[in-house]
Amino acid sequence: MKELVIVSGKGGTGKTSISAALAFLAPQKVLADCDVDAANFHLISSAVIREIHPFTAGFEPHVDAQNCTHCGKCTGLCRFGAITAGIITTPLHCEGCGVCAFNCPEHAIAMHDKKAGQWFVSDTRLGRLIHAEPGMSVENSGKLVSKVRQEAKKIAIAHHLPLIITDGPPGIGCPAIAALSGASLVLAVVEPTLASMHDLQRLWELIRHFQLPMAVCINKSTLNSLNTHTLIAWCSKKKVPVVGNIPYSDVFNTALQAEKTVMDTNNSEVQEKILELWYNLSKLLDINPIDSIISRIFRKINSFGIKKGSEENTL
């Protein structure tokens, strides 16, 4: 079983649109939306939620009012000012450290699991999708990412599916680290801007630290040809294959507004480039890219007089 994790150094590069297009092409797979702080894969894929599960992370105090004498010892010990004489006055300040429960002379405070969000199993027109949403003011998105990946792997194993496509979070923080660890291949989606180029450098350093294979897809490549050539040169220097070079097109926004992927549209130029990207990724993942869906797409694209995708690993 292989896992393709799609990430970006910054938001807005088209990472989710690329992920959805690849999910459209991949024959047998499970989908995981690990961008849990801004999950929107379900909007593109016409998701129907089949299962809802609570997610717990950390602890929170619960006070037994019958045993509490309101002695105030917990107030003096709580450095966060979350509890006053046995009453949780500001729960958002509580860090779940448990010092109040440990030192309560009446044993009136107990630490319980804290609900930190929920995760879902959904059926979509692109395949089975695992996604999630964190709780309000809860800082455990890294753990929630790990839970989404864990459940996606369970489904892949149970149904003998060879591929997991993971739409990862942007950046290099805890959620991104949780999404990257143990990936078969990391695809970084970048755009030819100075900010994206800078963030790609940081992302490459993180991926190299974990010794993971990495490839790059340049999205909106025609916006700035000079920066695109600079990106290709940088990737060549770092020995990172550029497996996709997708021109800027309004079709991405049009498809997103219609809750579709770009492969559902009639833009043959973009579709050809996405097909090239899928073929190049398939080679790196050592999986077979051909199935009946792709054959139908090729027939559709060939009706516009366009040839099959390139066989090159780098563009």
Query: Structural class of the secondary structure composition?
Result: alpha/beta
The biggest beta sheet reads: 9 strands, mixed
Uncertain segments: 303-315
SSE series: EHEHEHEEHEEHEHEHEHEHHH
CA radius of gyration is 23 Å
List keywords for this structure.
single chain; 315 residues; alpha/beta; Rossmann fold; Alpha-Beta Plaits; 2 domains; 9-stranded mixed beta sheet; two-stranded antiparallel ribbon; 11 helices; disordered C terminus
Can you characterise this structure?
The protein has 315 residues and is α/β, with parallel strands linked by helices. It has helices at residues 15-25, 41-44, 73-77, 99-103, 141-158, 174-180, 194-209, 225-238, 251-257, 268-285, 292-302, and strands spanning 2-8, 30-33, 48-63, 83-84, 87-88, 109-124, 127-134, 163-170, 185-190, 214-219, 242-246. The longest helix has 18 residues, at 141-158. The two termini are 27 Å apart. Keywords: Iron, Iron-sulfur, Metal-binding. GO terms for molecular function: iron-sulfur cluster binding; metal ion binding. InterPro entries: 4Fe4S_Fe-S-bd, 4Fe4S_Fe_S_CS, CobQ/CobB/MinD/ParA_Nub-bd_dom, P-loop_NTPase. This is CobQ/CobB/MinD/ParA nucleotide binding domain protein.
